[in-house]
Automatic annotation (TrEMBL):
Residues 129-414 form the NADH:quinone oxidoreductase/Mrp antiporter transmembrane domain. It catalyses: a quinone + NADH + 5 H(+)(in) = a quinol + NAD(+) + 4 H(+)(out). Keywords: Cell membrane, Membrane, NAD, Quinone, Translocase, Transmembrane, Transmembrane helix, Transport. It is found in: Cell membrane; Endomembrane system; Membrane. InterPro entries: NADH-Q_OxRdtase_suN/2, ND/Mrp_TM. The gene is nuoN. Belongs to the complex I subunit 2 family. This is NADH-quinone oxidoreductase subunit N. It holds the Pfam family Proton_antipo_M.
Amino acid sequence: MNPLNDKLTQIIGSLAFVLPEVWLAVVFCLLILIDLFGKKSWLFYCFFVGLVIEIGLIYLSPLQNGLFLNTLTSDLLTKIFKYLFASTTLAILLLLKNAKKDFAIFQRIGESYAILSVILLGMNLLVMSTHLLMLYLSLEIVSIGGYVLAVLSFERKSVEISMKYVLFGIFASAMMLYGMSLLYGFSGSLHLAEIAKAIQQNKLSFPFLIAFSLAIAGFLFKISASPFHIWTPDVYEGAPTTVVAFFSTASKAAGLAVLSKFVIILGQKEIYNILAIIALASMLIGNFSALWQFSFKRLLAYSGIAQAGFMLLGLLTVSEEGVKILIFYLIVYVLSNVLAFLGLTLVENKLRSDSLLSFSGLGQKNLVLGISLGVSMISLVGLPPTAGFTAKFLIFSQLWQDKANSLSLLLLIVGLLSTAISLYFYLKIPYYLFFKQEENKNTQITDFKITHFQKVFLLVLAFSLLLFFLRPDWLLAVLGLS
């Protein structure tokens, strides 16, 4: 039979396993058409329904390896990450719906939705990829969409700051591409499994470690891990809040998903050492830098850098149990951050400021907002009775079990120290909400009201963080990991 026909048959046969991705391409086209020829009010409902249908298609999609000439795979871990990406994008869509409509991003809301759908498609392909070329192309889809989202406010400050994101992103992509080319040169293959075999057959060399370090640069950039974190505070401060929320949650989850694939497939002690150093630097830089922040966005930016370090700790325990812990931690982090950004969005709607002083006394004026933001901050610290405590406890327990390894013990000590340091800046938010008196007695603060839907949104997220503290097994059962 003709080899070309064989390949075409394989490609056509693979389409049944990527229906969620095909559907996202359809949603993108629909959003563009509605933006050009339809009513703007249809855009939200089209995207919302599209995301709900995508989640259903993810559930119905069968598991299969070796898709599209062995460049993509669909396994349980991939499906879990795709659920997370779609659910997070759905939450960001609701954030956009509840943001004040005089923000500049709403002048281009059709393009915003379309770009989000493309980024979601890129993230799905990214987590499915088992081929270096597909990894790179998928990451560039996500990155270019992120560059556009960062400048959607079309304000001078936002454009200037987003250039930092673009330039650092291009630099990280160039490093990653060079590292991947070196991996190909050492192994003779672009498939991760073949690269892993080449490593096992040949003694791991120093040049390979350099190649690996360069190859993961783009993914470290996505999760804001050191030393690729420099762009984070300025971009978080200058970009629209809903865009920042997306960078902080879905984009970070995508980068971590691919890093976990690299570590699981290539799994070598020397690779763990590299990630351990990055985790240490991220935790220390993020937590110490956050101590002096009085902008809520910048505080969350440095918080994200520190949290990236904790997530990398989860990667260092590569086992069936370790993967469960990593996914649990990531889901809890996403819930906590979405809740924090929802609270910030509501405050910005009223006060047009993200200064911590803007939160003074708001917890007394609006109890639902105050309690929900308090739960979010307590979860990010890792204190009971929130799921953040369970997530960090599981990671620290894994490190303690490996305490015979001096590096694991060092990571455990630094992790505990970083958590103690983070108490100060995270708990500043509840302090301002409930104990700090507002300096300006203006009518906005005196009459701080939110809609019933916004109250329900806040309470559902806060309740989830409390529920998964009491019953973490329920979350794992839903994901099929119990």
